Amino acid sequence: MPRPPRFSNDLVGAAPWVAACEWREELGSTSDYALDAVRANDTPLPLLVVADRQTAGRGRAGRSWLAGDGALTFSVALAPSRFGLSADKLPAASLATALAVCEALEPHLAAPALKPRIKWPNDVYLGDRKACGVLLEAPAADRLVIGVGLNANNRSDAAPPELRDACLSVAEAAGREVDTATLLVGVLAALGQRLRQLGADSSEPIDEANRRSLLTGRRVTVEHGGERVEGLCHGFAEDGALRLESPDGPIRAMLSGTVVAWDAAVAQPSSL
Fold first, then answer.
1. Where is the signal peptide (predicted)?
2. What is the predicted pLDDT for the residue at 164?
3. Average pLDDT over residues 140-166
4. How far is the C-alpha of 178 from the C-alpha of 172, rounded, in Å?
């Protein structure tokens, strides 16, 4: 199926690092499609897969990702080594992807209270509501699929009742519909830059992610391997780990886990 002409033209100018693109009106999951392409090994990388509708999206830990009409859903399959990324940098690449989404969203949002922020390890929030999820999967050596599900023009009141107060779309935050092609091209342009910086051992992506951290200064609870860890968030380490100050003082770096609770109030850590 051909790509929309405007999308194709904008992509060539802003994200020339993308080698191939597949656009579909509907897919179960753009990441599943990209993973199949990686396994078949017959498509040039980086490969971009975009779907107008996604019916079986996936989040972290096997959770489903519900994408209503108007959402922007896409995945990128790439070879990390082409960006200088080793396997130990993949947690940081997750933050870099969330950062790229933040940077693409910001021109569309005027309200300072809705500045896009990163909730470790891979979510983007507008205020206290989720606008985007990111999922990284490494199906083989030197292969990575980055999946992004962004609430662009879909409405939170169309979500299941239990999710309506927890999600927000860019259109709802901006007070108008947004052009999804512009959003996509903006994310891809920022993503290419941030991944290259990570590969060059620049601290800039993590520094900027820290400036956008939703949880820094808040007491949070992280679930990891059946254990619950509570502490005061000190932001992100260089490798993408979440830094938590435990009640007895030591700061623990967590490379994986799920944030299951956090305080609404910010209590400044002793040092950041």
1. none
2. 79
3. 88
4. 10
